[in-house]
Structure formats: structure tokens, C-alpha cells
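Hi W., the calcium ion complex you wanted:
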Amino acid sequence: MRVIFRSIFYIFFLEVSVQGLCPEPFESVQNKCYYFELEVSRTWDNCRARCQSLGGDLAILNTCEEFSLLVKHIHISQLEIPDAFSFFVGGTDRGDEGVWYWVDGSPVKMGIPLWGQTDNVAEPSGGTEQNCATLNKANRYYLHDGECDKNGYAICQIDPLPDL
Ligand SMILES: [Ca+2]
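Structure:
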């Protein structure tokens, strides 16, 4: 009996501590902290400034697992943005066409499964016209290049709070 109580307590404690890892208004998705801006659309630069004003930056998707968990979260939580809009994340090839970097300076993985396709053409496909990374709503939130000056909705990320 005591073991069961201890297990329940332990699970509860773990749950609370995991929930508590992200500072407001960020929410926990596995062990990452994201904030989804669903009210106001902005240019990529203004999305980035918004994320930085919250103490974070635009989201970085270093692994396929992070990418799939984030997209799954968008679907499961039914995070809705208007059609024809996309989410902005923190990748860009501005300044060096075709060479994609995240805002922390790490390289963006290219190809499947992160990047989507448009009419059987692999993304990114927009050349120098499209230099900012989006999760494209029309393509089930696969990564696409988009115009930096068009408005999108920010996905921000912040480091989890240190364990107390
Ligand atoms: Ca480009």
C-alpha cells in the first residue's frame, strides 16, 4: 500500500514539476517550452522581436522528434490560425541564399521529413523571394520557406526553468 501511495505521489510530483518547467506564457511540449501567438500576425522580424520581448526567441527545431512533437501538439490542441497563414519559426536563409540557419546559428536540417513539398517540388522552393521559415498550414505544417515581410503567427521558444 505504501508503495502505491509513494508511486502516486511520485507521478503527481513529476507531473507538477514538468508542468512547472516553463515560465508563463510558455507551455510545455515534452521537455521544451513554446508559446504560440494566435491573436496577432506579424512579419518574421516582428515575430522574432515579440518572442524576444517574452525572454525567448523564435522556435528552433533541431531534430525530427522535436518537429513531429510540435506539429502533433498543434493538431491535438487544435491551435487555429486563419487559412492562408502560417506559423513563423526561427530559420532563415536571408543573406546567404539556400543556406538555412536557426536563430541560434545552428544549421537547419534539409529535406524530408522536416521540409514539405509544393506540387511535387521540394521545399524550400522560393529562392531569394522567400527567406524565412514557416510551418505551412496548407501543407499540414511542414516546413516551407515564406516571405519574411508577409504576416505570420509566431511560435516562440524559451529555455525551461532550471530544476529547483
Ligand atoms: Ca531563400
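The pocket of calcium ion is lined by residues 93, 97, 124, 126-128, 130-131, 145 (CB under 6 Å).

W.
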